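pinned: reference chain
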Amino acid sequence: MGCFRNKKIIGWLSIVIFLCILGCSPLEIQRGVFSPPDEKYMVHIPNSGWEPIKLGKEDLALWHTQYHATIAFISSNVKGKKGSLEALDNQLFIGMKHKRIVLKDFVLVDNQRAMHTILTCELDNHELKIDSYAIQSGDRVYDLVYWASSDSFNRALGDFENIVKSFKFSNYHGAS
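pinned: its structure tokens
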């Protein structure tokens, strides 16, 4: 049963990669640093098995073939929208079933207040574990998200934690 379940998860995650290949646009990562042209942040990308992919609205997604894990960087305009950082964070998890919060706490990421959430959930009949940070700065919210199957979650978690530590707003950003 466990082997069958793992094959289903691998198949589901392979669909994500296939969709990426169809709609990917080139990404520039120079010397292990990613800084999207229209955003005002930079982050160091681990080189240990992570492949950059571009699916759609996120700035960048990374896929780890060995651990079947994904990391995504998502930035959004929240100008004129009312809502707390916690509410903005909760929007990441819409559509997920059987959510169980493991940790939810405010932390600082590059001296900005962030909502750190770890949860388990079910998405498309697959059990996932997710670690996320929602950072609001000015009229933008920046989501750093890592997910993998519950079985393999801890294998690449250190890479994600290093990414979060490396996240920096550019000097010219009007961080508030």
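why pinned: Residues 2-169 form a domain with the Protein Transport Mog1p; Chain A fold (CATH 3.40.1000.10). The CA atoms of residues 15 and 92 lie 20 Å apart.
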